[in-house]
Amino acid sequence: MIRTLIADDEPLITAGVRTVLESAGDIEVVAVARDGREAVRAARLHRVDVALLDISMPVMDGLAAAAELAAGPRVVLLTAFGDEDNVRGAVRRGVSGFVLKTCTPEELILAVRAAHAGQAYLSPAVARLVLDMAAPGDDERGRDAARRLATLTAREADVLALVAQGLSNAQVARRVHMTEASVKTYVSRVLAKLDCANRVQAALLLRDAPSPGRTPVRDSRASRD
Fold first, then answer.
1. Whole-angstrom Cα Rg for the chain
2. What is the pLDDT of residues 144-202, one digit of tens each?
3. CA dist 224 → 4, 16, 23 (Å)
4. What pairs with residue 75 in β-bridges?
5. Contacts of 223 (CB under 8 A, 6+ apart)
6. pTM exceeding the 0.85 threshold for the entire prediction
7. What structural domains does the chain harbor?
8. Where are the alpha helices (DSSP H) in 103-138?
9. How many CA atoms lie within 13 A of 200 on its CB side?
10. Measured distance CA(4)–CA(21) in Å, rounded
């Protein structure tokens, strides 16, 4: 079971999120909180695996709470505001997920499972914003990105390009005609080769690379390892 904390200052939201998560069967909500400070205490007390935090909360907001929990549970931010400042703050704090409150129940469950598995999950709209807001790299950063990306095989580059679009492992698997388990292995290999902690960092690295260094997605049946 994935031990989960929900932190939101709106009881109705908390109740709805709890119902969604516990319907998954492999997620247990072991604690709830109404502000960031209470969330930090509860996460440590109950030894949660994933902390699902609203950004806008009293006493301490979700971004500040995420920073305090950096060495603890995986953090997924759930918010109604997917604006650039919030997304940028989340990326800086290395959160494992950023999900909008307009998401589907399935997407929320997927985000918690991905975080627990050590992956990063962004709502597709947020993934696009991350790539759009990242300033093109300077020459030195661009060369470094191109050098690191050049270590990838054609198949690994295909997987990375789809991951950077915010696709889940299952969605990537369908696109490149592989099993989900194989995609998971490829993602882990890509992150290790690029020295990236999570998918968000890998996506930003791809964004930094000069255009000629970016590899278009091909049908994996024509790709070589």
1. 18
2. 888 899 999 999 999 999 988 777 788 899 999 999 999 989 999 998 999 887 777 78
3. 40, 46, 41
4. 51
5. 154, 155, 158, 176
6. no
7. 2-131 (3.40.50.2300), 136-222 (3.40.50.2300)
8. 105-116, 124-133
9. 27
10. 9
Sheet holding 97-100, edge to edge: 27-33, 2-7, 50-54, 74-79, 97-100, 121-122
Q: How far apart are CA 52 and CA 74, in angstroms?
A: 9
138 Cβ neighbours under 8 A, 6+ residues apart: none
Token pair for residue 140?
């030195």
Q: What amino acid is encoded at 180 in this protein?
A: E
Question: Six-digit token pair at 12?
Answer: 């109705």
Phi/psi class of residue 55: alpha, beta or left (left: φ > 0; alpha: ψ in -120 to 50)?
alpha
Q: Do 30 and 1 form a contact (C-beta atoms < 8 A)? A: no
Q: Are strands 50-54 and 2-7 parallel, antiparallel or unpaired?
A: parallel
Residues with Cβ < 8 Å from 174, sequence gap 6 or more? none
Residue that is written with structure tokens 């907001």 in the block = 61
Q: How far is CA 206 from the centre of its chain?
A: 16
The number of residues making up the chain comes to 225
